Amino acid sequence: MTALQPVRGTRDLIGEDFRRHQAVTDAARRVSALYGFEEWATPIFEDTRVFSRGLGDSSDVVMKEMYSFEDRGGESVTLRPEMTAGVCRAMVSNGLTQTNLPRKVFYAGPMFRYERPQKGRYRQFHQIGIEVLGAAEALADAEVIACGWHIQQELGIDDGTVLEINTLGDAESRAAYRAALVAYFSAHRDALSHDSQVRLEKNPMRILDSKDEGDRVIVAGAPVIGGHLTEAAAGFYAAVRRHLDRFGVPYRENPRIVRGLDYYSHTAFEFVTDRLGAQGTVMAGGRYNGLVEEMGGPATPSVGWAAGIERLSMLLPVAPAAPRPVAVIPVGDAAEGAALDLLQALRRAGVVAEIAYRGNLKRRMERANRIGARAAVILGDEEIVAGVAQLRDLDAGTQEKVPLAEVPGRLG
After folding, report:
1. SS3 content of the chain, % helix, strand, coil (to 5)
2. Is 35 annotated among the ligand-binding residues?
3. pTM for the whole structure
4. How far is it, in rounded angstroms, from Cα 279 to Cα 277?
5. Distances (CA, A) of 224 to 41, 160, 174, 234, 366
């Protein structure tokens, strides 16, 4: 019988893979809390309209990649392809749009997109992210970026990434820029890919994000937004850069950055790396000022980013080591009860401790070596009578008698 395998585009997280994944999540959770972010968890699947309304009909995610299906009640539901829309929906659904603004939200969890699996990208993948909901100030944009940079510093990967920033301007700037793009791309319509021809009618800025090689040649000559910014939009962008300088976050400007979702405005940014081949973006986001409204809430200026845990974990310089346990080894049936008492005392003291379920002293010691134990605590009849344990350092090869009550403190 053929052994079953994980579905294409998914994978198991075991051993070192899981420890890398957990290290990224733990660091992000710890650092984001320092910035005042509260963790939220939203459902893994949502009403399809959460994403079709929130992501925009011209988005590749909506056009090609969503896992959508009808449930038994005939409702269209979608496995979440990203979490920003779900967070905004949760804010509206839970009546949080009018009080205690801004809301600062951190999240972590699995996402789902039907796309070609490749290095660092899976059909079930995992993201961390933060959102500041209800803040219109440029300082919020800069703080969000600074938090992402801080997380990368905490992980020790900041020397391998570069922050690229751009502005998408305000509504007036975007309208002027859109007209310029329509004029430019219309002159090259026949040479554009089919997808970009569709985007030309719906959202021409999305053409700038095309991965089609033929489109990229045309995009290289397209106008940039800088010449179309209003005074207010230019001032906002200058304030973001000024705050980033104050936070000590290095960056370079890239006028070709456009976020892949339709609701972005003003700041757009990406942390990129050359250490992962073609898949160079590890953290990306920007300002979105209309998404909460799309979910039925009031106008709520917001900004945030998301990052792929798989890609960040691949950049970790060293895989986190598994904790080395202490092996508790009873010698003889009579010693088992005392060994179990000591086992729990060690665990309550914060010491990772294991006991083999069967075997003589030799076999239990062999298991201790297999699991990489740093020490063995040996208890026999003589030790119990004397109120001591034999404490063996498995690295140094030394052994000494230690009073039972002192064992947890010695190993903690």
Report:
1. 45, 20, 35
2. no
3. 0.90
4. 6
5. 38, 28, 11, 13, 67
Does the annotation list 357 as a binding residue?
Answer: no
CA–CA gap between residue 142 and residue 267 (Å, rounded): 9
What is the residue type of 362? K
CA distance 36 to 57: 34
Report residue 66 CA to chain centroid gap.
Answer: 19
Report d(CA 156, CA 386) in Å as an integer.
49
Residue 156 phi/psi, 5-degree rounding, is 75, 25
| 1 marked as part of a ligand binding site | no
Place of tokens 């075991």: 14
Is 383 part of any known ligand binding site? Answer: no
Name the burial class of residue 151, with classes exposed (0-12), middle (13-18) and buried (19+) by CB atoms within 10 angstroms of its CB: buried
H or E segment to which residue 110 belongs: strand 103-112
pLDDT in tens, the chain (412 residues): 899 999 999 999 999 999 999 999 999 999 999 999 999 999 999 999 999 876 655 455 655 689 999 999 999 999 999 999 999 999 999 999 999 999 999 999 999 999 887 777 799 999 999 999 999 999 999 999 999 999 999 999 999 999 999 999 998 998 899 999 999 999 999 999 999 999 998 889 889 888 899 999 999 999 999 999 999 999 999 999 999 999 999 999 999 888 655 567 899 999 999 998 766 899 999 999 889 999 999 999 999 999 999 999 999 999 999 999 999 999 988 899 999 999 999 999 999 999 999 999 999 999 999 999 999 999 999 999 999 999 999 999 999 999 999 999 999 8
Residue type, 145: I
Ligand-binding site membership of 113 (annotated)? yes
Q: Tell whether 42 is in a known binding site.
A: no
Dihedral class, residue 296 (left if φ above 0, else alpha if ψ from -120 to 50, else beta)? left
SS3 of 162, please? strand
Q: Is 263 annotated as ligand-binding?
A: yes
Is 199 among the annotated ligand-binding positions? no
Beta bridge partners of 108: 128
Query: Is 127 assigned to a binding site?
Result: yes
CB 137 within 8 Å of CB 113: no
Of the candidates 269, 310, 272, 259, the one whose C-alpha atom is nearest the C-alpha of residue 110 is 310
All domains of the chain in start order, with CATH: 16-170+230-315 (3.30.930.10), 326-411 (3.40.50.800)
